[in-house]
Amino acid sequence: METTPHESHSARALRESQLNFQHMAENVPGALFQYIQFHDGRNHVTYMSPRCLELWELPPEQIEQDSSVLWQMVHPDDLPAMAESVVKSAQTMSPWYFEWRITTPSGKQKWLQGSGRPLFRDEESVKWNSFILDVTERRRAEEAALQLRAQLQQAEQLEALGRLAGGIAHDVNNVLTVVMGFAESALDTVPDDAPAREDIAEVISAAARAASLTGQLLAFARRQPSEPMVFDPAERLEDSSLMLHRLIDGRVVLEYDVARDVPTLSMDPAQFDQIITNLILNARDATPDGGVLTVSLRRADEWVELAVTDRGVGMDAETQARIFDPFFSTKSHMRGTGLGLSTVHGIVNAVGGDVTVQSQPGAGSTFRVRLPSSGRPPAPTPESVAKTSAPLPPRILLCDDDAQLRRVLERVLRRHGVDVRSADEPSAALLLLEGWTPDLLLTDVVMGGGGGVALASALRERLTNLPVLFITGYVNDDLSRTELESGTDAVLRKPFRNSELLDAIRRAWNGV
Question: pTM, whole model, 2 decimals?
Fold first, then answer.
């Protein structure tokens, strides 16, 4: 720093101090400024350091000329609290601190942190020396951490809820299998013209509806083993059209738009049915005054795209953000379970697809599901095994820990000439092999004493080629579920009809 011979020591010290301050103001990571707030509401920035250009995208001169530009950038939701923080600091002469959002002239969203200390207060104004820092990255990191923590908590809650839902569904499925089994047996003994036939049919129909709900619970809980196969989704949709029409009332018209070149899918066909059913039920409920529901199916590159469109009430952005949350429902608690769309979301994600929604209030909604195509031809449909042409295995070992379920299964099988021996746990089942050899094992999966998978393994140490049919409504551990899904043994899901049980046994025994 150059000095003149006539410059006093104090003047040189002042110049040096000013240069040091200027150097500091230009190199600190934020902006230094001096702010005056007048009691009549006016304010003025008497000094702003050059780094303000990085924060507000405005030069110091413009801010010093008109400080209102700073207030104009403040996010509307933060403005009242920020103004209150300044007033409180002025009234108490306490340090000022605040964090707020701004939108810069170029449209950037930023978080700023301000701190300062009042220098003096007179009858007209209060003056602060303050420092402003850009804390956008820190706030984003904090928000990301909060979201991650919330997601982790939700995942833990959903896991606990899934185990609870799966356990409940297991017990309910046992009861429904018993109800359907005894009701169908009773129906077989009632004359065609008897009034009781209609009542029994209603019991079976109600049990089937309850089975649909437990299926949604298990799909949500991901406690149900899947049975993937390659199939034609267009044919599957056509086969289920009659059932889908029964889901809607007369005020709603169901239309189909199916392309000719829809590729095959590789997934559980029953889960594909669940996706369609839940989307149509949701669209039906969103169209209370009636209208047209459109189901479209087409190829989209390497994907199969399923879309369900309604012209109903539609949804706002807030509802769309939560529409796939478990137990979230826009319907009354008497009508909606809040599981339908979350079930769709869970199934689609599990097979590597995605589901999106487009909607506006009053303009209806379109749910679009993309599923990965298999690139393979459909699997051959197992030949229909007629009861009269394909016999049942002469001897069946039955193992299930539900006494009522064992009784109904024993009754159904014995009516068809099968020698059935049953046990309530694997160890008891193994004792029945003394002097008796079964032709097929019919076993539950979730039981005490090791479970059905372990029982099948133990039996095959003695009877290497013993056919096994697992009956299950719930798999409570990952190991059993993995073995079921990766193995070759047949699986029949509870609840089931008597005819479904007999057909499954025939297929398992005949290797179809």
Answer: 0.50
* Structure token pair of residue 507: 């297929």
CA distance 115 to 129: 9
Q: Would you report the helix, strand and coil content of the chain in percent, each value rounded to 5?
A: 45, 25, 35
Looking at residue 96, its pLDDT comes to: 94
Q: Between 444 and 270, where is the model more confident?
A: 444
Tokens 């398992």 correspond to what residue?
Answer: 508
Q: Hey, what long-range contacts does 463-469 have (CB within 8 A, 24 or more apart)?
A: 463/437, 463/438, 466/438, 466/439, 466/440, 466/441, 467/393, 467/439, 467/440, 467/441, 467/508, 467/509, 467/511, 468/440, 468/441, 468/443, 468/508, 469/440, 469/441, 469/442, 469/443, 469/504, 469/505, 469/508
What residue type is 116 in one-letter code? G
**Mean pLDDT calculated for residue range 405-414:** 93
Distance, in Å, from the CA atom of 87 to the CA atom of 126, rounded to the nearest integer, reads: 10
Q: What is the mean pLDDT of the chain?
A: 83
- Using CA atoms, how far residue 344 sits from 170, 216, 267, 339, in Å, is 21, 9, 14, 9
Closest to 75 in 3D by CA, of 96, 103, 97: 103
385 has a pLDDT exceeding 50: no
Hey, what are 358's tokens? 């487009």
SS3 261: coil
CB of 506 closer than 8 Å to CB of 390: yes
Does the pLDDT at position 214 exceed 80? no
Q: Name the percent of the chain lying above pLDDT 70.
A: 82
